[in-house]
């Protein structure tokens, strides 16, 4: 069964007297374990799609189902619980809290959990180690490089072990070498079975994905399947 099922997803925004149509009638099914790339020019609806997948904004029509749950039929409160349990978000402007250490930033998603403080710290430290920042736990964001800050943001998205990671231009502000390291980290997570949907306009990232959809004017105009199923070999 697909982990994510999107049907006839449509989103309009009211912009003064205008109505901007950001997505029209999108249909998409994403299997568990997929690393999906979402590409397309600026304004094509990529972030809108990610926001709808993440339960951040309501669709004008259509639906989003994740693991069989119809996201927008949940009450706001239940949807917030669902987000905490199911989703990890990574954004380009990684939104780290400047006066909190790397460890404290990563502990934030655990704030409402019933874990003891010592356990929250242990989980956060483990995931920071996982992204290669074992010796940066007590650093503030400003004491870290751009790539390290992005890795803290990834650690924060991973700390509650969400089945789905949503990333919006996570390498958008990084130089190409650092960007590659961040993509390697995502790719490692993907090899471990993590489902990831990543918005990017960097064509260099294309090779990392299993599957890429291209948006234009709120519609899917092209799709590439980078890892087609290899047909089983017949015996001679
Ligand atoms: P992308 O991420 O591909 O650059 P977006 O999803 O951000 O594109 O935007 C798609 C379209 O929707 C654009 O025309 C944008 O101006 C419009 N849009 C996005 N968010 C809003 C908003 N909050 N209010 C009004 N218009 C919006
Ligand atoms: Mg965007």
Automatic annotation (TrEMBL):
Give the species this sequence originates from. Geothermobacter hydrogeniphilus
Secretion signal span: none
Instruction: Give the matching InterPro entries.
Output: AAA+_ATPase, ABC_transporter-like_ATP-bd, ABC_transpr_LolD-like, MacB-like_ATP-bd, P-loop_NTPase
- Annotated Gene3D superfamilies: P-loop containing nucleotide triphosphate hydrolases
One MF annotation (Gene Ontology) recorded for this entry: ATP hydrolysis activity
Q: Where is the ABC transporter domain?
A: 4-236
Q: Which GO terms describe its cellular component?
A: membrane protein complex; plasma membrane
Family, similarity comment: Belongs to the ABC transporter superfamily. Macrolide exporter (TC 3.A.1.122) family.
Q: What is this protein called?
A: ABC transporter ATP-binding protein
Q: Which PANTHER family match?
A: ABC TRANSPORTER ABCH.1, IMPORT ATP-BINDING PROTEIN
By its UniProt entry, which Pfam families does this protein fall under? ABC_tran
Q: Write the record's keywords in alphabetical order, separated by commas.
A: ATP-binding, Nucleotide-binding, Transport
